[in-house]
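A quick aside before the break. I want you to see a complete sequence-to-structure record at least once, exactly as it would be stored in a machine-readable document. Don't worry about memorizing anything.
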Amino acid sequence: MAIALLSAYCAPIEHDTETLESILKGRQTLTQSTSYYLGRTATNADAYSLRLMSEGIGVDYTISSNVIVDNTYSGSGYIISIDSLFAGPSDALAFPVGTFDIKESISRIYVVVLHGGSSASAAEKIQVVEGTVTVAQSGDKYTVAIDATNINGSELEVSYTGSIEVAPATIYANEPLAVSTQNFEIEEIAFESNNVDVDRDSQVDLSLSTLTLTGAKTRIVIDEIVGLPYMIGAEPKRPEAGTYNLTEWTYEDSSFTPGEIYNGQLTGSYAWLLSNPETPSFSEMWYFTEAQMVVSETNGVYSIQI
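That is the input. The structure line, written in tokens, reads:
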């Protein structure tokens, strides 16, 4: 299967050697990685993207109606961005090891320089034109060593040690998310339920519900809450009392599903702090990987704790 490489070409900015060296001289250690499997080429090679980021760099998506429409970087530092690295066919979701010549096995590699964040298309880029990228693996840790020359003739020697998790291209977003403590003020509750035939035997198995809690600038979504089927016209208006735990799409009783970005859309359970509701920011969204919801009613007081 031939593939279309999922990257937009941006002309490199040619910095003078002194400027580039001053950028990299005080660089932070590369501490983050993201990688996507792009598919198999017509020449029977597997293609991967790889992005290595320094401390404090994040990826901030702009999302409209739960669909990703653009991405920007947040923070200051630098990124080593490989649009596509080609290797012999193997396990598609395991990053390949070996020494890769930049001219022969890599399509476009840049140093991306950030000063307080920038859109992906407008960030400063210095193209790397020759050299090698060497990838070694020990257990679940990778070491990536880059020994190369930039377009302006300056030398580039950087390395990264840590995990590299490969995700399918355009399906999952596995970018680092912000870590912080937030208080959410809730004003409205919405609850929607649908009966579902999970095993497709023409018999309803269970109901899946979505609880949405909203405020002026906040939103919390608890998605695919598993409950009992209901009679036609008797759709529940709110979650039943009980304890609900997040599970990995196993649809157990009294459970709900984690959050993720799948096929460019935000799905599952998440919390969102909407500082600007007109242009919601990914950096203010936290999708749940561990969570519990307790619903109770005592003396006529209905309570939801998440």
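Two observations worth writing down. The CA atoms of residues 208 and 224 lie 5 Å apart. Residues 1-16 have pLDDT under 50 and may be disordered. We'll return to this after the break.
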